[in-house]
Batch of 4 targets.
Target 1
Amino acid sequence: MTMNFRVKQMVLALALAGMTSGSVWAASTPTTSSVQGRVPVLSAPSNNATQAVDFSGTYATPGQLSTGDTVVMTYDYTDLDGDVDNSLTTVNWSYAPFGGGGDVPIAATNAPAASSGGQGTSTITLPIGALGATAIKVTVQEFSATGDPISGSTITVTDTSLSTGPGGGGGGGTGVTPPGPVVVGGNIAGGIFLASASPAAGSGAVDYARVGTHPLVGQTYVFRAWNDANNSGIWDAGEAQVVPVSIQWKLDGSNATANGTSAVATLNNHSIAGATSDTYTIPVNSTSNSGAIPGDQGFSLKVDFN
Ligand SMILES: [Ca+2]
Ligand SMILES: [Ca+2]
């Protein structure tokens, strides 16, 4: 009995010795190349297309891009190894300015995907400088914070309003923005001033479009637009002038206050031929574009701009 117990002790001791002697190998293979993982992948939530993104936004004018609109790029992030999303460190939004010249960057607010399977977003507000731009552009590269390979393809969107486009210029998903050109949004105000008042930011010049003061035949008026940062409808100090892409002076309403012995005429946003600069001198009756005998008298003036 005692003998048998001793044998069992011996066997146990040998077994323990065998378990702890693993670090002593007789030989080993050469090492492999470094372990690699899988590339990070961005895909469009709308249709699961890979190397693709979707766009959405809030649009002041339905069906059009306007200054002040918010545009959001969204993607699904996948990394099968567990490397986290770092794609938005490569994001680059821009627009081609209306007047020509190089692309102008647009600052973004970025929120990377929390983990593989999550969604990342990059959000911009269309700046006033984008007025008239035909398209909003963005590039982003599939990129992870760690791993090998650490990056994949660069997704190049040359027009956020396209799903696919010439040269693959769209986002690849079915979520797109309205098309350009970018029009005037609610953050831009326009007014009509006496030219001789030399209107400027904070000048306090009378805005005939907002004050009940009658414009006069023979006087010269100017249209001015500005970034109405505080949404007051007043060209306050510090609010930058904006130069619209297009301007059209108009006559509107009835001339009943001036028709006298002539028939009352009514105009509905009548575009004054040739009045497409920022300056308009109210003509005498004979050279008025109104078609009414008392000329511009009695009608209201307004300016459409974009
Ligand atoms: Ca990876
Ligand atoms: Ca203002």
Note: The chain is about 5% helix and 30% strand.
Target 2
Amino acid sequence: MQGEFGCTLFLPGSADGRPASVTIRANGFSVKHEGGSFEIPFHQVQASKGGYGDSMLILSGPGPQGPVSMYFADRGVVSGLSGYRLSPLLASQLSGSGGGGKAKWVLLVLLVLAGIGYGLYWVGAWGFGKAVDLAVEHVPPEWEVELGKQAATETLTQQRVCGNVAVNGTVNDIGNRLVAALDAPPYTFRFKIVDSPDVNAFALPGGYVFVNYGLLQKAATPDEVAGVMAHEIQHALLRHGLRNVVGRASIAIIVGLAVGDVQGVGGLAAGLAGELAALSFSREQEEEADRLGLDLVYRAKFAPGGMPDFFVKMKDEEEKRGIALPSFLSTHPDTDARIEALKAEITRRGTGSPEPLARDWAVSIAACDPIPLSDPDAEAGKAESP
Ligand SMILES: [Zn+2]
């Protein structure tokens, strides 16, 4: 038998899912979307679960321009495939992709709503936190990238980024060395330098990491910058910003997401992306980003002391000159405890085996040459002169 199934298709180089229809043929899938069509043979397809509560079936494989993923809210495609000659791998992946996650979800959300409805604040608050955790856990990385990209575009339209080749090369060297030490990051990290004198850095969901030029000027070594960037990279990987945004979403959006509404993340992004950069993290989130950030610094062979050194420097400035702490340290009055925790871990673990960055620090960060940020995915400093 032949069947046609609707899905959300993610193409390479685009974080935007688009509607597509998939037809099962004798030897593979025929995929049709607004921009064209292509075929993927069964033996090149992998199946997995994803989406909220693992309620969706994801089929991935090579498209004409690179890897593609298809998200199916309806598992009808699995029964549609019965009787076809599939590879043993795909057959076993499909048999393991049965439902179940969705029912658990609906139950949980109903419980939360009941708790709120009956004025049981505790049940409501507890259940709401759990619902948000579960929702965040199952957001596909593609949607995370979409949210981060929207936020990057919204928050940075008023700002400019550094176009200078040397400073971009240096920050990318540091960032790429940190990312290379990660185990299979779910998305591509992108590093940009914002033309701002404020000492700050932030990460958006989906791997968009921004470092202010003012922070580079304040840092004495690449290791100090590596410490802050590692902290920000861990915020992104731990989905802290995403969790904060989902936690502020309306119950309607969360219920929609819980029952596998693909449009839910779109609604979330449109309403809250702009707030992402402004939201602050909890003390627990900061401590977690510090701890895992320091571990990443060790693995990427930067000098671990750079991280607490930079934190101490910022704190001194605050105390002596009244300069506000950067947001990555603004868990005041717990900054001291965070610095002490980092120092204790370095005492325990030793100095590691740091390898210096093959660049002259003062020279590499000497100029910013600001340019407008047109596309958060564009590589600043690569295409522009000088
Ligand atoms: Zn932080």
Note: The pocket of zinc ion is lined by residues 231, 235, 281, 286, 289, 328 (CB under 6 Å).
Target 3
Amino acid sequence: MKKYDIGIDLGGTKVLCALIDKNDKEKKVLFEIKKKTKKEKGNKKVTAKLLEALDELFEISNIKKEEVDSIGLAVAGQIERTSGTVIDACNLNLKNLEIKKILEEKYLIKTNVFNDVEAAAIGELVLGAGKNHNNILCVFIGTGIGSSLIINKKIYHGASGSAGEIGHIIVDLNGRSCSCGGVGCLEAYASRSAIESRIQGAIKKGRKSIITELTQAQHISTKYIKQALDAHDEVTSQYVNEAIEYLSGGLASAMNFFNPELIILGGGLIQGIDEIYLKTVKLAKAKALKTASEKTEFKKAQLGDYSGVIGATLTEEYNNVF
Ligand SMILES: [Zn+2]
């Protein structure tokens, strides 16, 4: 009997595989395997890591392949949904990886592949902050900025799948270059990596910051940004506030354009630093048109690390149409 589903979240730093009871409405994770993917790059190495994690999940849970109804795989990258191919995932250095085919051939389990942000958005829609809502904008702010639009409880993809990319709306015509190749995108101003490069630039120019002591030349993670803010570090708070100004401006534009019932904010920077969430919401509401901000509610994402794996098991059902 097919009693289970497997959800997988494959991101730039980790792969998380979770076994979920198919009939549990709350989609509680029964068993999970988490592995770091930081050093594994490229089609071959990432696939090997993924298969290793899945084999371990079967081993620790003592479940047979025949008992699993479907695998939902969420990948941080561009996906061709019909063939289940990862066209491009720059954080993992994947190119044209036919991962659906590989998994179906090995495990003989029906597999669907999705983008990680859309899976997380569906997770939040069905079981998290988006329950009882129809039209939602989900924005995840971490290393980059990912987002997804939900219209009438379905993901809206647009003509070629890029709908809802708020991270790449242009906030400065003559501005910083963005990872997408464009210029002046919101992601280059309001993501954690944007804050990191601004702080590093100031330190290089001779400004003093507690960040130097805290990080010991490692990269400036959300944890260190929070510690520096708590210590009232001037440089950190200047660039965090700058990021909040841009982020709230971007969200206000999205509110005016899309007029959603609900905006769900998630991702490391939002989950890790309450001050960023609260200030962003307040400013976005103040900057948007009154008619838009009156009806738009804000909530924090609620499923945390599990939004991707849970969403991946549900996404087929809530996937598009447009
Ligand atoms: Zn961009």
Note: The chain is about 40% helix and 25% strand.
Target 4
Amino acid sequence: MPYRDRTTPEPVQCPCGHGRDHYMVSAEAEYRVLGYIQLAFGISARPTKVKYRCRRCDTVFATTKDPAVLDKHY
Ligand SMILES: [Zn+2]
């Protein structure tokens, strides 16, 4: 059996089976402290991490630091 490529994103789901793109799942940006201060002053800040939370079971089942995803939440 070939070794699984760890860079390949696996289909991740919360316990109720919602994937990242499900409408009940919201992506929450997480910022450094400086980022929150910038946001408070109305300056857009680049998040350091994006968390995927299911709004039904309130589970954060995935996080990403993918720059392409972070840019979407800039
Ligand atoms: Zn869920």
Note: Helices lie at 33-40, 67-72.
